[in-house]
Amino acid sequence: MIATPAHEIPLDIRRKAVAVHEAGHALVALLHKRNVTEAALHPPHGLSGETRFEGAGELLLDLNTKADRHFIEDAIVILLAGQVAEAHYWKQQAPLYIPRIDSHRTDDAEIHALRSHFALGPEQQAMFMGYCTDKASRIILHPNAQAAIAEIATRLFDTLSIGRATLDEILARHDVAEGKLRVARHPWERRV
Which end of the chain is more exposed for a tag (fewer CB within 10 A), N or C? Predict the structure, then answer.
């Protein structure tokens, strides 16, 4: 398989991929009770984006506190959710385009910084990242979540920005709420 150079992929296809990526972040962040204020694509073309949080900034975390360890784990899952959602989008586009995705560099850097808080050996780290990726995937690939992501991404594609109230309405319309997405538990969850 040869990757399709970005300049050969139509702008609207790439913009939709970014919208799906941000929709994945926003959906999973909301399910994890994060204070999402907005999902946005950057003008003029919407080829990059961000999910914004109220009071975002440097956090002081104590790894001796179980809640802080879970906060880091959830943050990694939220970051991976964008990648999972975008990968699913590109999988659907595979008959036409196989992109070399480099839009994850910022997410990957944040994941690396968060993961470094845990003193895990290579094998434990691989298991932990597999667990986080699986957790993000189980949420993102749920049919209700897919419907919500599609609607969020379409709105983002059209308007470049979608606020919290609209995000909440979309999740409610597609019955996406904590506890409503029934997904099987991963074996690592018993160890964390």
Answer: N
